Amino acid sequence: MSADQPINADVPETEGPDEAAPSAPEAPKPPPSPQPPEPKRRRPHVPGALLLIGGLVVVAIGFIVLAVVAGSGGGPKGESTSSGPAPAPAPVQEEPASEEGEASTPSSQTSEALGYPAFATDNTTRVGGATAAENAAAAALAVFPSTTPAQQPAAVALVDEEDWPAAIAAAVLMAPPVRAPLLFSGPEGTPAATEEALAALDPQGSKATGGARGFAFGDASVPEDARGIETIRTDSEAEGDPRVVAAAIAKLRDRLFGSPPDAVVVAPLDAPGFAMPAAAWAARSGDPVLFSEADSLSEPTASALQRHADVPVYVLGPTSAISERVVHQIAQINPKVKRVAGADPVGTALALARYGHGGFGWDVNDPGHGFVLVRDDSPLDAAAAAPLSAAGTWGPLLLTDSADTLPAEVRSYFLDVKPGYTTNPTRAFYNHVWVIGDQEAIDVKQQAEVNELAELAKIGAG
Asked: Fewer C-beta within 10 Å: the chain N or C terminus?
């Protein structure tokens, strides 16, 4: 095998997603998750075999919740008498007694509502919330199960659920040493998913957070019973300006981290799809994200760049999203500026996944990595999923531009990094993909195709 030949060079491409999952008899369906009042897209039919997998996962979660609740009643505060995964954040409600007088197992509907995986394949896991708030709560609990104090985050970041730039910028607080996952709130109140996740995570603050149990940005409201959450204020005249909020988050990052960043990302304010990959990178690296319009560098962003005039700057997106004029304006502040871009959001996410320069960029061009897959029209989900790129199987955000079809360039990339082995699969590298959103966002057939592309393949006849 030559050095420039991919390990998967002999692996043929499949015919398409329609053949990815065999049919099976319909299995009983788990109780449906609460649905939003106006569905975004029509849900397609789900193959019976995959529903069966989903049912098994839901049943398993129900038994885990019951075990945790049954084993945690008598311990002192801060101690856990169960070593199982965290239960759903909502208080567990007992089901009505059966005719024989025995209570049934606790409901798993809360777990489903918070986006716990509807099902998983051997190489993919879905976080299937119907809203970004549910997906953020589920991602936070996946990274911080919180069954013991050691598994709890020290703090959380609360962002207005309609403020995608602030959400992407706040992803930087997931990086060490703060490690604060993102949750969504809003000016009118806090979603139930966020309140339940906050109760389960129960952050207590730390030296790295300055004692704060959380940080609220923009118009995000703080639940009445949430103590120790610091609201990051901006100039009243600039209230709600995403460029100002992002600059304030970058300044908070400097205060909490106690050191300058290794790089700064400038993302397009007017093209959220191109900005989405910045969230995962910020969570992994601790590099702050600032915003610019297409043709002009704003004063808040310029001032934030001047604080670190010797730190490399990377502009995310093509000239249609951030013009060469803006790059020239940045270069007058800091000549160390480069562009990372593809022709569209899908291509830009792939460009950042492949890119590596002086420690910046994922540089993922070989097997053995984690990936996160999100729809390119869901910037809030990109921020919600950012903790998954900074824990577990750390890996870049990739984008898909439709519910049912994986883009050809993403398929090609997965084939490039497809893991393989010659004689011993237990000594191979493996890929894993988190799929974010319900089936209206990414269909089960597309998940099945991704699973096949991530599958470990035998290479050669050895």
From this structure: C
Angle separating helix axes 345-354 and 408-416, nearest 10 degrees = 10
What is the pLDDT, as a whole number, of residue 118?
Answer: 53
Give the whole-angstrom CA distance, residue 301 versus residue 393: 32
Residue 216: its H or E element: strand 214-217
The shares of helix, strand and coil residues in the chain, as percent rounded to the nearest 5, are 35, 15, 50
| pLDDT given at position 247 | 96
User: CA quadruple 351, 244, 401, 295: dihedral positive or negative?
Assistant: negative
Write phi, then psi, for 291 (nearest 5 degrees): -125, 150
Domain borders along the chain are 17-458
Specify whether the CB–CB gap between 87 and 64 falls below 8 A: yes
The pLDDT tens digits of the residues spanning 37-83 come to 444 443 444 444 334 334 434 433 443 333 333 333 333 333 333 33
Low-confidence ranges of the chain (pLDDT < 50): 1-112, 114-117
Please state, in angstroms and rounded to a whole number, the distance separating the CA atoms of residues 224 and 189.
10
Q: What is the pTM of this model?
A: 0.76
Q: Of 312, 265, 36, which Cα lies nearest the Cα of 171?
A: 265
Tokens 């319009």 label which residue?
293
How much is the pLDDT for 119?
A: 75
Phi, psi of 447 (to 5 degrees): -60, -40
